[in-house]
């Protein structure tokens, strides 16, 4: 039995966790953790795939650079995003693998670019509308025998979301981004039912509109260990469950100067942020229909110089096979 699942449950969004307090944290990057988990290295079958992913992040505490909760901070910081992702995988191989460019169009509601300058997280404000656009023009996936699936690519983030420096209803980051990404799935068992998964993203950021600030580079690692379970003997209906997690670090200083209350603060003097989370993922898969649905929950157990909260992700992916597979011969 071959349980290799052709689905795309790891999807990207173009939202920013935003600014933390000027004396507590750096300008945040554009990658919101929690996008990848199980099947990180798997790409869809040749054809067109549409995926929808809804993500909610919420936090009721703000941590300092030592990881301790900042006393006196009240309220809740949260946002929702709904991603519409379109993949295209041609039938013919390229560089020994399958070419898979894609674009993510995201609608956001909440405090994507928040300013925690007060003692109330709710004071960060929030808006709604179309956020930044994520485009991955170069992405290639390879199958290495029956043990490893791997993909790697380059993407850019276009600042198409509404952004005005100092506004309370921003839904965009206000700057261009460049991402170098990878995804790997290792099939631990011979029947490919048990997998170990790892995805990475390295962010390089441009200068934020209306400022001289360029947020520091960031690195995100997302992982998962999963098991496929047949729900029907003919394998027409499958479940996949597993443990997932994410880790994100700021890896270089921001540049420029942030002015708060008339006082200039060099960005390079601010502490780096990081966050770590663990959770669970469940997938429901109909292989013959090229349809899958997924749900993920993450709890952040450590956060430095940023909010500490939880992430919920759910959605589905559906592939239109082009060309259609030939029927099995009798």
Annotation field: number of helices:
0
Per CATH, the architecture is Beta Barrel
Q: Name the helix and strand elements from N-terminus to C-terminus, one letter apiece.
A: EEEEEEEEEEEEEEEEEE
The amount of beta strand, in percent, is: over 45%
Low-confidence stretches: 1-25, 113-119
Assign the structural class, choosing from mainly alpha, mainly beta, alpha/beta, alpha+beta, or little secondary structure.
mainly beta
Task: Give the terminus-to-terminus CA distance.
Answer: 19 Å
CATH overall fold name: Porin
Query: For the report, how would you describe the main beta sheet?
Result: 12 strands, antiparallel, barrel
Total beta strand runs: 18
- Total domain modules: 1
General description of the model:
The chain starts with 17 loop residues before the first strand and ends in a 9-residue tail after the last strand. It has strands at residues 18-19, 47-62, 77-89, 98-99, 102-110, 114-115, 127-130, 133-144, 148-158, 177-187, 194-205, 218-230, 238-250, 257-260, 263-266, 274-286, 291-304, 307-321. It has a single domain, classed as Porin, CATH 2.40.160.40. Mean pLDDT is 84; it is low at 1-25 and 113-119. The chain is globular. A hairpin with a 6-residue loop joins strand 10 (177-187) and strand 11. By secondary structure, it is an all-beta fold. The chain has a 12-stranded antiparallel barrel. The protein has a two-stranded parallel sheet with strand order 1-6.
Element layout with pairings:
Layout: E1 18-19, E2 47-62, E3 77-89, E4 98-99, E5 102-110, E6 114-115, E7 127-130, E8 133-144, E9 148-158, E10 177-187, E11 194-205, E12 218-230, E13 238-250, E14 257-260, E15 263-266, E16 274-286, E17 291-304, E18 307-321
Parallel strand pairs: 1-6
Antiparallel strand pairs: 2-3, 2-18, 3-5, 4-8, 5-7, 5-8, 8-9, 9-10, 10-11, 11-12, 12-13, 13-16, 14-15, 16-17, 17-18
């Amino acid at each position: 039995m071959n349980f290799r699942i052709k689905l795309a449950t790891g999807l990207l969004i173009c939202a920013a966790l935003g600014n933390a307090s000027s004396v507590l944290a750096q300008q945040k990057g554009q990658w919101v953790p929690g996008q990848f988990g199980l099947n990180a290295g798997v790409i869809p079958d040749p054809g067109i795939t549409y995926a929808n992913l809804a993500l909610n992040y919420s936090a009721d505490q703000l941590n300092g650079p030592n990881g301790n909760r900042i006393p006196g901070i009240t309220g809740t910081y949260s946002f929702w995003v709904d991603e519409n992702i379109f993949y295209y995988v041609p039938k013919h191989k390229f560089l020994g693998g399958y070419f898979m460019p894609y674009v993510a169009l995201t609608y956001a509601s909440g405090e994507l670019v928040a300013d925690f300058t007060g003692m109330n997280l709710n004071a960060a404000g929030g808006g709604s509308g179309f956020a930044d656009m994520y485009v991955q023009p170069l992405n290639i996936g390879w199958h290495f025998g029956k043990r490893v699936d791997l993909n790697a690519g380059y993407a850019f983030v276009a600042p198409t979301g509404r952004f005005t420096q100092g506004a309370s209803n921003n839904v965009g980051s206000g700057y261009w981004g460049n991402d170098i990404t990878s995804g790997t799935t290792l099939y631990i068992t011979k029947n490919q039912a048990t997998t170990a998964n790892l995805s990475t993203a390295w962010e390089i950021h441009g200068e934020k509109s209306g400022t001289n600030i360029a947020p520091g580079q960031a690195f995100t690692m997302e992982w998962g260990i999963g098991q496929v379970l047949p729900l029907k003997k003919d394998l027409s209906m499958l479940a996949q469950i597993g443990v997932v997690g994410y880790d994100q670090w700021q890896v270089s200083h921001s540049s420029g100067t942030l002015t708060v209350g008339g006082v200039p603060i060099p960005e390079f003097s601010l502490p780096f942020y990081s966050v770590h989370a663990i959770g669970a993922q469940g997938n429901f898969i109909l292989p013959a229909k090229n349809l899958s649905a997924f749900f993920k929950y993450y709890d952040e157990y450590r956060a430095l110089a940023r909010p500490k909260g939880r992430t919920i992700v759910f959605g589905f992916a559906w592939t239109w096979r082009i060309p259609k597979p030939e029927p099995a011969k009798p």
